[in-house]
Amino acid sequence: MKLPDSIRDKFKSPLGLLLPESRADKKNIEKFLSEKSYIITVGDRTTEKMIDFGLIPSLQIVDGHEKREKREPPSKLMRTTKLTTSNPAAEITQKSIDVIKQAFTMQPPIQLIVDGEEDLLILPVCIYAPENAVALYGQPNEGLVIVKITPEIRNKAQRLVDLME
Hints:
- The protein is built from five helices and nine strands; from the N terminus they run E-H-E-H-E-E-E-E-H-E-H-E-E-H.
- The chain has 165 residues and is of the alpha/beta class.
- The strands form two sheets. Strands 1-9-8-2-3-7-6 form a seven-stranded mixed beta sheet, with helices on both faces.
């Protein structure tokens, strides 16, 4: 599925709470998590930040880029199961959806390394994540978005996916 240029603006609004960069510290993030939260991160910087805070994501989706600049994917965790997928920019491939669904059935932590771009994969994450999930991703130059997965969020994410071609 491709994201047509004509609807890109609909995808720029945060799916959840936007925590400004100045407030995106461990203490403020922990307010949105419980002991049983299944933490999902989408993005290299977000993943790295959570690991540095000692908040180990159950599922980490990374592509080895930050703001379009190549970088090393976070690799501080030695015991992470690694999965891979190919996902071009401005698209969500069926393979990526299938691998995300597979990741949710596996023992965490799992790192999904994307060849291409991971940005839009927050949508299938919100649709298929377990009930106790909290997804985190960066809103460029603004801060960290924290999304508690609820039926409303699942529906909102599905409506956005349905707009894609």
